Structure formats: C-alpha cells, structure tokens
Amino acid sequence: MTEPITDPTSDPTSDPTTAPRPTASAARTDAEPLLALEEVGKRYRPGVLALDRVTLRVPPGRTTGLVGESGSGKSTLARLALGLLAPDGGTVRFDGHDPYRLRGRSGRAVRAGLQFVPQHPGRSLNPALRAGTAVALALAAHGTPRRERRDAVAALFCQVGLDPALARRYPRELSGGQLQRIAVARALATRPRLLVCDEPTSALDRRTQTQVLDLLVGLQAESGLGFLFISHDLAVVRELADRVTVLRQGRVVEEGATGELWDAPRHPYTRALLAAAHNAGTTPTT
Ligand SMILES: Nc1ncnc2c1ncn2[C@@H]1O[C@H](COP(=O)(O)OP(=O)(O)OP(=O)(O)O)[C@@H](O)[C@H]1O
C-alpha cells in the first residue's frame, strides 16, 4: 500500500478517521480483554503501510473475527498478535504482556497460552514426521514428561475427533480436514487460552469446513478458549465470531457484534464483502 487510503463512502460514521473508535462496544463484552491491540501500526518499508492505527480485542473465551480481502493486513495483524513482529506504533498485549517480548521461562509459560492454527497445516507439519510425533514435540516443548506423551497425544487426537491410530500416519497420508484437526491438536498441546486461526478453513471443502468450525465451537464450549478468527470470508466468520472487525487496506472500516454487522452493515466495503459471500454461497451449512 503506497498511497494514503481514500475512503469512498459518503457516510461519515463509516470513515475510520472520523467515526468513534469502537471502544464502547468492545468494552461491553468483557472488562479485560485477553488479547488487545490498541492503535497498532505496522510499516514493512517506507511507503508500505500494512496496518494503520488498528484496535482489536478478544475477551477471554470469546471469538473475534477479522475479515478483509487479500492484502488488507490480516496476516500482519496475526503476526503482531503472536509476537512474531513488533508494531511500529501502538501496543499489543496478551494477558497483559507484550507477546513480542516474552522471553525466558516465565515468558514461555505465558506464551504457551497463545497458539496458532495456520491456513495450510500440511505445509507447517514436517513431512518426515508422523502426525503423532508432531503433536508429541509440542507436548515436549511444553514440558510434558516423555512417559506421559503417548497417552497425551491419544487424548488430544480424541479431543479433536480423530482416531488415535492416525498418529502413526505421515502428513501425506492424511486428508486436509484431518491435517487441520492435527494442527488444532498440536496447538492445544500447551493448554492455550487463545488460538489465532489464520484462514483455518479456507483450504477445505464445504463439508470439512463445517466440521472444523464445529470442532472449534465445541472446544470453546468445553474449555473456554478464545479465538482470533481470521478470514476473507464473512460468512465463515459469522459461524463463530461474537464480534467482527472489518479491515480494509490496513484500516478498520467497521467493528461490531456479528449479528448486527451481518443484518445492518454500515460500511459499503462490509456490504460488498457480504454480497460476495452471498454470491459465492459460502455460508457453511450446519
Ligand atoms: N514481509 C513483508 N514485506 C513487505 N511487505 C509485506 C510483507 N508482508 C506483507 N506485506 C504487505 O503488507 C500488506 C498486508 O499484507 P498481509 O499479508 O498482512 O495481508 P492479508 O490480508 O493477510 O493478505 P492475504 O489474505 O492475501 O494473506 C500487503 O500490502 C503486503 O504486500
């Protein structure tokens, strides 16, 4: 993004430079967010402003959806949330800590609470390792004793709805849906409080997408996990998000409760995303 962003809307309440920041509505959900990005900016190099004063919060046990088309800054925001990048401006806090500065033993303990579910689990799993070994390595990194790992792997496979026998398979021997469940199992190995899910279902067919979404909903109900759920597809986000932030060219154009945003989108860009979702017929069937 090289030029200042011009907003085509004539609705002044939709303009991020004039509209009130969504603090009041965010504050309504919970007093203390688990993840909070406040007025965050990120510039990769002069002229490439990936994020501009973005505020987004995920309360404990809740789901915040982040939508926007390709290049809007979603993955950059995910990397900031995970502490893989430092912001140029603003603050990022997970459980009160700056994730970029979590170091040492105490830092690792906090960091264990923050995990990632990628878009293409097949690419993030080592093809030379059996699926169970990948999960066991995550358990080992979290300090689970060797003698407990086999049972813990089996329990995690069961938790994500997989037959523990699949732990012996290599990634190439598993379906996309199975790989995504293993990615979730691996993320759960550290008993996280928040999962950052970056397009976790966009590489899956509709039926498998629904199954993975159901899995995430079930995990949240079971263990109070929070999700930052990132997608270009509003229809998918609608399935699980309590609130949605709409990002366009690095700026928040709209934020609100999912149902309200779905029923009465204020910004033309949100309306365009919704229309695209309707036209593509991407609303998952349940
Ligand atoms: N490492 C990088 N170096 C320079 N520019 C980058 C880098 N990563 C991302 N960008 C730029 O920052 C902007 C936001 O990119 P980002 O990947 O965060 O968007 P996105 O919404 O996740 O896109 P997609 O859905 O295609 O993954 C884009 O203009 C992109 O070209």
TrEMBL record:
Family: Belongs to the ABC transporter superfamily.
SMART domains recorded: AAA (SM00382)
Region (Disordered): 1-32
InterPro entries in the record: AAA+_ATPase, ABC_transp_ATP-bind, ABC_transporter-like_ATP-bd, ABC_transporter-like_CS, P-loop_NTPase
Protein name (record): Peptide/nickel transport system ATP-binding protein
One GO molecular-function entry: ATP hydrolysis activity
Any Pfam family the entry gives: ABC_tran
Organism encoding this protein: Actinacidiphila cocklensis
SUPFAM superfamilies referenced in this protein's UniProt entry, alphabetically: P-loop containing nucleoside triphosphate hydrolases
Regions of compositional bias (Low complexity) in chain numbering: 1-28
Gene Ontology biological process: transmembrane transport
Highest taxon, organism lineage: Bacteria
Alphabetized UniProt keyword annotations: ATP-binding, Nucleotide-binding, Transport
Ranges for domain ABC transporter: 35-274
